[in-house]
Write a structure and sequence with these properties.
By secondary structure, this protein is an alpha/beta fold. The strands form 2 sheets. A 12-stranded mixed sheet has the order 3-2-1-15-14-11-9-8-6-7-5-4, with helices on both faces. Helix 2 packs across helix 3. The N terminus is likely disordered.
């Protein structure tokens, strides 16, 4: 399904890096570079609350409490990206995303989790067993964060994450058990296929069709060769949209993995999240595929099978 999304790309004259500059939707131009000015309902932020101790590590989270909370909405729990080897809830794009949702009246929790692959990476030379362990550990920490926030889970929780955080959120929702999980919002996430799919969990997925790290379709992570130790097959957003009955997919044709963090500061993405949360809260149907077109080449060694 074609949509009025058109993403344009420009080069930052200072850093010489390619950035998403704007989103034009139904004639409205929204700037999304360095957009960290927030207005609206406002919020109070409680930072670095210790929610669990793992061996010698004390894991912390931040709570973004809106001054005017939507009383019937679920809690939103966000997990940062970083390949299970780096990253933090304190990165500017993560803070921007959490503040944006809190300004809409949603209570948001942003977590740090165990980085099992710190100093080791998450590439093709990392074994499948190590990759699975890293994803599971992060997902277990997400469940522990939900337990810590138990008194705020009267309406359940929606898990959200970017890149590795999205992989952890999806794993927690579809591989682990928590009665509080009502949905997932994934920015460039994927998961290993579970033994049984939980078809009652709705998903909002943002993903570039030319993501060379986390596959958009069903493919090996990082597109590693099948003979490498880290040839872990994952089910990406395009395949999830075909597998599950309740998926809202925003597919970015030719988009790469940079969208995992870039979209966190995008007002159009915030609006999609708000709409998804409200639909879930009100029990309205969730689904549909929209395609944004990025005018750039896709040089993946294996092109995604999904065709917008």
């Amino acid at each position: 399904m074609e949509t009025p999304w058109i993403l344009t790309r420009m080069t930052n004259s200072t850093s010489q890096t390619s950035l998403i500059l704007s989103v034009r939707r139904t004639g409205l131009l929204l700037s999304c570079i360095n957009l960290f000015v927030f207005s609206g309902l406002g919020q109070e932020i409680s930072r670095n609350l210790a929610y669990v101790t793992r061996a010698d590590s004390i894991l912390t989270l931040d709570v973004y409490e809106p001054k005017k909370k939507q009383s019937d909405a679920p809690l939103i729990l966000f997990a940062h990206g970083g390949g299970f080897s780096r990253g933090s809830k304190d990165a500017p794009q993560n803070v921007a995303f959490c503040k944006a949702l809190a300004n809409k009246g949603f209570q948001v929790v942003s977590v740090n989790y165990r980085l099992r692959q710190k100093s080791q990476g998450f590439h093709c030379d990392v074994s499948i067993e190590d990759k699975r362990a890293a994803i599971r550990m992060a997902a277990e920490d997400i469940i522990s964060a939900l337990d810590f926030m138990l008194s705020d889970l009267g309406n359940g929780a929606i898990l959200s994450g970017s890149s590795a955080g999205a992989e952890a959120a999806l794993f927690a929702a579809f591989h682990l058990h928590s009665p509080h999980i009502r949905g997932v919002m994934s920015f460039a996430g994927a998961l290993e296929e579970p033994e049984h799919w939980k078809t009652h969990i709705p998903l909002l997925a943002f993903h570039g069709t030319c993501d060379a790290l986390v596959p958009f379709d069903r493919a090996i992570h990082h597109f590693c060769a099948e003979s490498t130790p880290g040839a872990l097959e994952l089910v990406g957003s395009g395949a999830l949209a075909q597998q599950l009955p309740q998926v809202r997919l925003l597919a970015f044709k030719n988009g790469g993995h940079e969208l995992a963090s870039g979209l966190l500061t995008d007002p159009a993405a915030w609006k999609e999240c708000e709409t998804f949360i409200e639909a879930l809260t009100e029990g309205r149907p969730i689904g549909g595929v929209e395609t944004a077109i990025l005018e750039q080449p896709c040089n993946l060694p294996q092109a995604p099978t999904y065709r917008p």
